[in-house]
Design goal:
The complex is a heterodimer of chains A (285) and B (364).
Chain A lengths: L1 H35 L3 H5 L13 H6 L11 H32 L5 H11 L8 H11 L5 H26 L2 H9 L4 H30 L2 H6 L8 H4 L11 H21 L1 H12 L3
Chain B lengths: L3 E10 L2 E11 L4 E5 L6 H9 L6 E6 L2 E2 L10 E4 L11 H11 L4 H15 L14 H13 L5 E5 L7 H17 L3 E6 L2 H7 L2 E6 L2 E6 L1 H6 L4 H6 L6 E8 L2 E4 L4 E3 L2 H4 L7 E6 L4 E3 L10 E7 L2 E4 L3 E8 L2 E8 L9 E7 L4 E4 L10
Parallel strand pairs in B: 3-8, 3-9, 6-7, 7-8
Antiparallel strand pairs in B: 1-2, 1-4, 4-5, 9-10, 11-12, 11-14, 12-13, 14-21, 15-20, 16-20, 17-18, 18-19
The chains are: A mainly alpha (285), B alpha+beta (364).
The complex binds adenosine-5'-diphosphate and magnesium ion (MG).
Chain lengths: 285, 364
């Protein structure tokens, strides 16, 4: 009886701790979401109103330009920019990551270790440290405030990571799989698409998610390299809510929700892949 | 349905040469086993035949065709890998049919061939499972099934049994032998296990350090090893090799024991020649405990240090001039360590190798 009781207490403690931890992690996010649904005057009220008295969709309506009060912020344009930039840079980073990861996992070539190390080291430089040189070069090339300009930066930012992750996955697939397929009648290309690619798919999906989220959420570089609705992304657009003397917290939070939701949805869709991917490839990779 | 010819085949990895110009003729429907210690180049040789490794020099032909520059898919061979390399995302049925599908065979043909292979290997019940749901022996069988469905010119096996436990290994060994009798095809089989080589092969190819040491039937290789390496590699427990010298028409072992030179070897040795005296444990038996105690014999007195009971026979560990020498006792009785026994040496079975070249003195 004693041990059973101990077990139950232990379990209860675990749950409470988990709950507290999750609360700490999630509270800011929940607060942002909540704020997005509250009128600004309630958000700013003094003394603070802790329990929302009024929930509204006005903030969202304003952002998208419906309703009486209009916010002069072109959120739909930012959304489109974000989507185009994040998707394009992810697709490119994954294609390159797949080729590079496969090459590192399967082939021997000169300076292989050096190149791999170089790729990893490039990630130790904080992106913001590059912003000035990138800004100067981009302005010469006329890439400032263009979508391709940002896409190139994000591809460069993501490639070391996608190569590293995907390399780990291909390494886990015995090379005999592809050889067996080649003996069975496949070309190397067919062996890749019919055998190795399906087996590495979860790893590639995880790499894609990470690349997408990096591009989708990136702020520091985008704030330097974008100016107008031509290329401004959602996180940069968020700052539009700060005027000289006022901050539209409710509007800003509503927009934050808009940024978070697609990322959440995407993560849920591939969650199964993500988890199996991380445990399968990440451990030894 | 083809012979395989290797002529002067060399494999280099960068500056490192791992196969040194080997030649081998494998006949139509022959079961050839490449055997040798780990790292001697067996897999490399097999993979060159398969087309999975480029050859650095020489020619390989399968049937009438030189295949040096053909990719694996054009060589019409199939291969069973050590780790089976089953496709984990496909069912057994799909694994078996994969090669035929790639070759764009009509579905009826695929179904029929898969059914046939499944029947030969007893896989009918397992067709809808995935490889993860199979035991080691079943995976092994699927790997063999995948090899036979395509009716290839030759089967290549790379240590197919080394991942199985001992009992299953013996069982699968028999099945492979049966399979070869049923599906008559040229087979090249790689193993480091000399027992597997002896039991399966029509001909054994003994390799070491990228060289072929000897090619012959299991009997030839066992009874007439060409050098000390083959002598000690084939046979279990291995052949005893004892330093000796030829003096006054006698063999003088390093401990001073004198033995007559068997007639068949007399003309191959000269006085004063340093030799290695080879004797299988089976031919060093305590008096009254040999297999057939006829023919020329000599006797030696030896002290038994350890007796290893195997049931029908006992292995006796003794020493000649410091080096361990094994004998065998058939129809065994209890032996206590330290016991001195008189052993028969079957002179008809002794081997002599030149000490310098390590080659059989019969080679001249
Ligand atoms: N890709 C490679 N690069 C360099 N050396 C290799 C490579 N593959 C095998 N070797 C070397 O070639 C030799 C023969 O290997 P292998 O054919 O696999 O031996 P076995 O199958 O007889 O154990 C070994 O010494 C091994 O280290
Ligand atoms: Mg090997």
């Amino acid at each position: 009886m004693d041990t059973a009781l101990k077990k139950r207490i232990g379990k209860a403690v675990t749950w409470v701790m988990t709950f507290l931890l999750m609360l700490i992690i999630c509270l800011p996010g929940l607060w942002v979401v909540l704020t997005g649904f509250r009128p600004n005057r309630e958000v700013l009220a003094k003394p603070a109103i802790w329990i929302p008295e009024e929930l509204t969709l006005n903030n969202f309506a304003q952002i998208f330009g419906f309703g009486a009060e209009q916010v002069a912020i072109p959120v739909p344009a930012y959304f489109t920019n974000s989507l185009i930039i994040a998707l394009t840079s992810t697709v490119i980073a994954i294609l390159i990551g797949m080729s590079g990861g496969y090459a590192f996992a399967r082939f021997r070539f000169r300076f292989k270790d050096g190149i791999f190390l170089g790729l990893m080291l490039s990630r130790t430089v904080p992106g913001i440290a590059l912003s000035l040189p990138v800004f100067m070069i981009w302005s010469r090339l006329g890439l400032i405030d263009t979508k391709p300009g940002l896409i190139i930066v994000y591809v460069a930012l993501n490639i070391p990571f996608t190569i590293w992750l995907i390399d780990g996955f291909f390494r886990q697939i015995p090379k005999e799989m592809s050889e067996a397929a080649q003996v069975d009648g496949c070309t190397r290309w067919q062996a890749f698409w019919k055998i190795e690619f399906p087996l590495a798919r979860s790893g590639i999906a995880s790499a894609a998610i990470f690349a997408f989220l990096t591009s989708w959420n990136e702020y520091a570089l985008a704030s330097q390299l974008t100016r107008s609705t031509d290329s401004k992304t959602l996180p940069v657009g968020l700052m539009d809510f700060t005027a000289q003397f006022t901050i539209d917290w409710a509007g800003m939070s509503a927009m934050a929700v808009i940024i978070i939701v697609p990322a959440l949805i995407l993560t849920f869709i591939v969650q199964k892949h993500l988890i199996s991917g991380l445990t399968f490839g990440g451990v030894k990779g | 349905m083809a012979e395989i010819k290797l002529q002067n085949v060399v494999k280099k990895y960068g500056p490192l040469e791992v196969v040194h110009g080997i030649g081998l003729d494998i006949e139509h429907n022959e079961f050839v086993v490449l055997v040798g210690p780990s790292g001697c180049g067996k897999s490399t040789t097999l993979r060159m035949i398969a087309g999975l490794e480029e050859i650095s020099d020489g020619t390989i032909s399968i049937g009438p065709q030189v295949v040096n520059d053909l990719p694996p898919r054009k060589r019409n061979i199939s291969m069973v890998f050590q780790n089976y390399a089953l496709y984990p995302h496909m069912s057994v049925r799909e694994n078996l049919g994969f090669g035929l599908k790639i070759a764009k065979q009509p579905e009826a043909v695929v179904a029929e061939r898969v059914r046939e292979a499944a029947e030969i290997l007893g896989l009918e019940e397992l067709l809808e499972r995935t490889p993860a749901e199979l035991s080691g022996g079943q995976r092994q069988r699927v790997a063999m099934g995948r090899a036979i469905v395509r009716h290839p010119e030759a089967f290549l096996f790379d240590e197919p049994l080394s991942n199985l436990d001992a009992k299953l290994r013996v069982q699968m060994r028999t099945e492979i032998k049966k399979l070869h009798q049923r599906v008559k095809t040229t087979v090249v089989y790689v193993t480091h296990d000399q027992v597997e080589a002896m039991t399966l092969a029509d001909r054994i190819v003994v390799m070491k350090d990228g060289w072929i040491e000897q090619v012959g039937t299991p009997m030839e290789v066992f009874n007439h090893p060409l050098n000390t390496f083959v002598a000690s590699f084939i046979g279990s427990p291995p052949m005893n090799l004892i330093d000796a010298e030829i003096a006054d028409n006698r063999i003088v072992l390093s401990d001073g024991t004198q033995l007559p030179i068997p007639e068949r070897l007399e003309q191959h040795v000269r006085d004063g020649q340093k030799v290695v005296f080879g004797l299988r444990p089976d031919d060093l038996t305590p008096q009254g405990h040999g297999i057939a105690e006829s023919g020329h014999r000599a006797t030696v007195e030896l002290t038994v240090e350890l007796a290893e009971l195997l049931g029908t026979e006992t292995i006796l560990y003794t020493r000649i001039n410091g080096s361990e020498v094994l004998g065998k006792m058939f129809d065994p009785r209890d032996v206590s360590p330290g016991e001195r026994m008189t052993f028969n040496i079957s002179l008809d079975k002794v081997h002599l190798f030149d000490a310098e070249t390590q080659k059989s003195v019969r080679l001249g």
